[in-house]
């Protein structure tokens, strides 16, 4: 019976220690949740400000900082867009070279003379327009 009582006391002591550990973890989790909620609210307010909502309580300095932040973001966006355009232009130039080479091979296979680069440009340059400076001329019908 003494051994049973000792085992019971030991188990209750272990359960008491475990419950203390669980309670500590629970308290830490509550504090962490509270901190996360505060951060989330701050991020929501910042998001609304970036979207232009809820600017009434902002000071001039806060508005100036917001404007600077938006300008920096816009410049990064424009830089990325320009980079993508440059990459696309390079790909298109490579594709143009491949198509010109393919066109040259096909002309040779058909027995035609290869086109000169100047001939291809002349197609675009020989376009006549009827634009004129000054009042329109009268046409005789």
UniProtKB/TrEMBL annotation:
UniProt keyword annotation of Coiled coil present: yes
Domain K-box: 26-116
GO cellular component: nucleus
PROSITE patterns documented for this protein: K_BOX
Pfam families noted in UniProt: K-box
Keyword Cell inner membrane: no
This protein's UniProt keywords: Coiled coil
Molecular function, one GO term: DNA-binding transcription factor activity
Coiled coil spans: 60-109
Entry protein name: K-box domain-containing protein
Species whose genome carries this gene: Citrus sinensis (Sweet orange)
